[in-house]
Amino acid sequence: MRKLGTVHLVGAGPGDPDLLTLKAARLIETADAVAYDRLVSDAVMEMVPAGAEQVFVGKESGCHHCSQDRINTILLELARRHGTVVRLKGGDPFVFGRGGEEAEFLARHGVEVRVTPGITSAAACGAIAGVPLTHRGLATGVRFVTGHAKGDAPLDLNWKSLADPDTTLVVYMGLATLPRLSAHLIGHGLPSDTPVLAVQNGTTPRERRLLTTLGEAAVSLALARFRPPTLLIIGRVAALADAPELVAEAEAAAPDAAPPAVALAHA
Amino acid sequence: MRKLGTVHLVGAGPGDPDLLTLKAARLIETADAVAYDRLVSDAVMEMVPAGAEQVFVGKESGCHHCSQDRINTILLELARRHGTVVRLKGGDPFVFGRGGEEAEFLARHGVEVRVTPGITSAAACGAIAGVPLTHRGLATGVRFVTGHAKGDAPLDLNWKSLADPDTTLVVYMGLATLPRLSAHLIGHGLPSDTPVLAVQNGTTPRERRLLTTLGEAAVSLALARFRPPTLLIIGRVAALADAPELVAEAEAAAPDAAPPAVALAHA
């Protein structure tokens, strides 16, 4: 049997190719085949060599036409035909990227797997907005959860544990379930005036930001027409995004933003 | 008054310079001045241009000879004398890096501050050990806390919230307080057989790893002579570090490791 190639699970970071690691950039530029999904930015994909095989394995929101089983099979197939396969994942492969499942499947089939970390969206969005994820007196720690749920399925999270005012809560893919998410958190004791920073398409040319509160976030973000992918940073530290030297202007010029974001936030 | 320079708070990542972002590498290579602490690896510091001013602002464990106030003042002073000042921080500047305090201080003094994220130790250690921080059926989310406490001060953490078996708990700087940390977590309901992966000097040539359990971690790591900086990944996902394709060999050859780590882990 022919020797199988190596599959690299590579973090593509938040979108700006400048935030790839040196290692990730080198792997992308020398890949024989690249499998990618919709969270990998066009700017990153432009770095893939012309001769490399490119396979889109994206799951569209609400329409899972490319199941995880199918992705696993595609990766195994690529490893049979190529020496260096790069599986590009938005952000970090091991933070809500299901990289662990792909690694387990491939390893079980005798494929060598290597993991290259990436800048996860929480770190990128904190950096651009000037919001430290931990901060003396404001947040002793930070936690990441996903707001993703299938259809109307309940969000299966430990709300009592999550409603901790001393911890920054970062929610990935939480826009669709935000009304339920904020209701649960407030119901379990997190103050409704807890600051919330929303960042859509962070670090890309289409980036938008809005500072709101837990009680108002669902309505504010709906009115401001925020769309996935949007990251939510919930907690006292989010208020620091107001520091004028670090905070971005409201993205009034964003193509699908109706009124300026700041006007909404303080309406 | 002369125009002040720009201070870039730059994540130096876990140690391996290959895990710097492209942006961080460029900033380091073009800096006029670099302030760095002991968590920034020698390999990263070798990238600093020969002509750049280098200032060590490290806080040694247990001996805070360089206070945060002093660091702030040094950064301001550097911004008065240089155009591009790079403040290098191990990992990510906004995850237990006190970057928020430095940014606030500098902004208050009229200095332009930019933040470049870095690969935080949790992501790096997860990647090298093959441990996904989130994983279907094992962890719905991940949280980062610090075990650092001054002297015998109590660890001021919300233990009830932390003892959540469905969340991966990553502890930065937790070696010294591990006996108290594990006792609190077990006391609040986290099973004592919860897997714990310890990684010392992750991604550097002196990297060491040990897989143990919450109940045995304090003793196992003491016997194996683990030293700071050591990261702890606590939770069901840590058990995946056993997957032979991804897990590292026990670092029996490490200079200060007495018996092989694996023998200890299963003793």
Automatic annotation (TrEMBL), chains A, B:
Q: Which residues form the Tetrapyrrole methylase domain?
A: 6-217
Organism name: Caenispirillum salinarum AK4
Listed A to Z, the keywords are:
Cobalamin biosynthesis, Methyltransferase, Porphyrin biosynthesis, S-adenosyl-L-methionine, Transferase
What domain of life? Bacteria
Family to which the UniProt record says this protein belongs: Belongs to the precorrin methyltransferase family.
Pathway stated in the Swiss-Prot or TrEMBL entry: Porphyrin-containing compound metabolism; siroheme biosynthesis; precorrin-2 from uroporphyrinogen III: step 1/1; Cofactor biosynthesis; adenosylcobalamin biosynthesis; precorrin-2 from uroporphyrinogen III: step 1/1
Pfam families recorded: TP_methylase (PF00590)
Answer whether the UniProt record assigns the keyword Methyltransferase to this protein. yes
Protein name as catalogued: uroporphyrinogen-III C-methyltransferase
What's a BP term from Gene Ontology annotated to this protein? Answer: siroheme biosynthetic process
In terms of InterPro entries, this protein maps to: 4pyrrol_Mease (IPR000878), 4pyrrol_Methylase_sf (IPR035996), 4pyrrole_Mease_sub1 (IPR014777), 4pyrrole_Mease_sub2 (IPR014776), CobA/CysG_C (IPR006366), Siro_Cobalamin_biosynth (IPR050161), Uropor_MeTrfase_CS (IPR003043)
- PROSITE patterns in the record: SUMT_1, SUMT_2
Which Gene Ontology molecular-function terms are recorded?
Answer: uroporphyrin-III C-methyltransferase activity
Q: EC number(s) in its UniProt entry?
A: 2.1.1.107
